[in-house]
Amino acid sequence: MLAFRSQVVFDGTAFLEAGATVLVHDRRIVGVERFGHQVPHDCPVTTLGGTLLPGLVDMHTHLVTDSGPMALDRVAGYTEQEADGVVGEALRRQLAAGVTTVRDLGDRDYWVVDRRDRQAPSDREPRIVAAGPPITSPGGHCHYLGGGTDGVAGMRAAVRDRAERGVDVVKVMASGGVNTPGTDVLRTQFTDVELHTAVVEAHRLGLPVTAHAHGTRAVRQALDAGVDGVEHCSCVTERGFGDCDDTLVERLVTSGVVVCPTLGADLGRSPAPPPPLLALAARLGTTVEDLARERCAFVGRLHARGVRIVSGVDSGIQPAKGHGTLPFAVADLVEGGVPIADALATATSLAAAACGLDGTTGRLVPGSDADLLAVDGDLRADVTALRRPVAVVLRGQPLT
Q1: Yes or no: domain 2-54+362-398 corresponds to CATH 3.10.150.10
Q2: Neighbouring C-beta atoms of residue 224, cutoff 10 Å
Q3: pLDDT (tens digit, 9 = 90+) per residue, 205-243?
Q4: What are the phi and psi torsion angles at 338 (to 5°)?
Q5: What's the CATH number for 56-354?
Q6: Could you give the CA distance from residue 215 to residue 306 in angstroms, rounded to a whole number?
Q7: Measured between alpha carbons, how far is 282 from 288 in angstroms, rounded to an integer?
Q8: Residue 375 has what DSSP assignment?
Q9: How many Å is the Cα radius of gyration of the chain?
Q10: Are 4 and 374 in contact (CB under 8 A)?
């Protein structure tokens, strides 16, 4: 048995008033006791001066991308061996940042699904939840990942192929994307019937569906189709980001969809915004900096209205959104007005539940996997402390 204690503890839902001692045995949490709890004499105790919390969950990552400029564009040129190396490095960087679970939403040739299937319980890698290649239109957003299809029959076949390969979730590109030339973030990529067919077929096979949707029109279409999640949910029109009336917000709330707004960027890693983002800002008559502020404020309003928010970065697609930058997404939520405990929950308990891992990870409760993170600082007062990991425990195994 091992014990980890701190006077500042976030259990995945709230800060514990008097701290806690977390007891770990055989990969699982077996107790969460008061800070001064007397442990067995042969139980090693690690006392932490900062904040102890569950390991983080990045809800939107692309493990086949290397965090370099225009990283998605290069994926199609990788050999399987090269891709496996990129995936391995991405997982290493995520774990070093305290991310113990990743949801991959941008695979090619099922490389990430295969990596998930090869993982052993003893591997020092974050748990993988995998979507396989995203379903997109021919020539559509991220078509170079190999998921292009169209028509009702094509949609059914694409979903069935993913189910047969054992994906955990189906991702559909409902709108165009910023990083794919020839696509438009303001436009939808499929007909209403095609998107609805994908959702019906996935649900029939027991799989949830999440939709990449930047434009307001695509968000509405995704809700009409009955998706379980919306990625980005920028609600962008020619008038700018967050162009979302009260009726649409209410639909986001009442539908119960999980929204991953893909906030977060470590600007210190990037000398300049990528050209496609600069072009989008120019098209909307604003700046990249103002776009970022508008998105934070918009997501804060969604949270205040009761929309289910989880945190993911779109990690790996470019330097500012490199693997391991999830703490910046949590900080952006706080900047948008989300209370710190609620913001942390989007990257722990709420994210785990959205992955179907409720009771497995994301909370400090008996029976949960012992995925723990300790950071240098009091998160109640300083959200940037999340960027300073001092200890990571993966399924009961201390790594640092």
Answers
A1: no
A2: 14
A3: 999 999 999 999 999 999 999 999 999 999 999 888 889
A4: -80, 130
A5: 3.20.20.140
A6: 21
A7: 9
A8: E
A9: 20
A10: yes
